[in-house]
Amino acid sequence: MEPGMWVAFGVSLLLMAVGVMGTVVPVLPGVPLVWLTMLGFGILDRFQRVDATFLVVMALVTAAAEVTDYLTRAWGAKRFGAGRAGTWGAVIGAMIGLFFLPFGLLLGPFLGALMGELLSGRSMQDSVRAGLGGLLGTLSSMVVKFAVAVAMTVAFVVKVV
Fold this sequence. Notes:
Structural class: mainly alpha
Number of domains: 1
Distance between the termini: 9 Å
Radius of gyration: 19 Å
Helix content: over 70%
């Protein structure tokens, strides 16, 4: 690899590290940043090392990770006894929580599931339990997205070096 591409590779690794951190620090875009960095490197390298097939596969992985993020929140609420209203509440709360970072990331699914269950006539105890499930789903999602971001970064390094 020529010297300029080594610099681009180093900058890419730094940006990917920020993306990996973004899976647990809510203000950063996480997995999408890892993918965008791959795309940027591919463009600079004229897709010699990071080709279109690799980028498409990684785009699908990125999309799956983002969809799984919301589904895991709903699963957590459902696993802890939430009904349809609480499950949807966890998902909607997660989306609304994005506007109230950093606390909204954790409180959104909890409060969404809690409110959904309360509005559907469930007891406070059952509603709190569903809310805790939404919170657990959020934390589980963070672990999964962290692992995906690290795996994507490793795949990039293997592909480039």
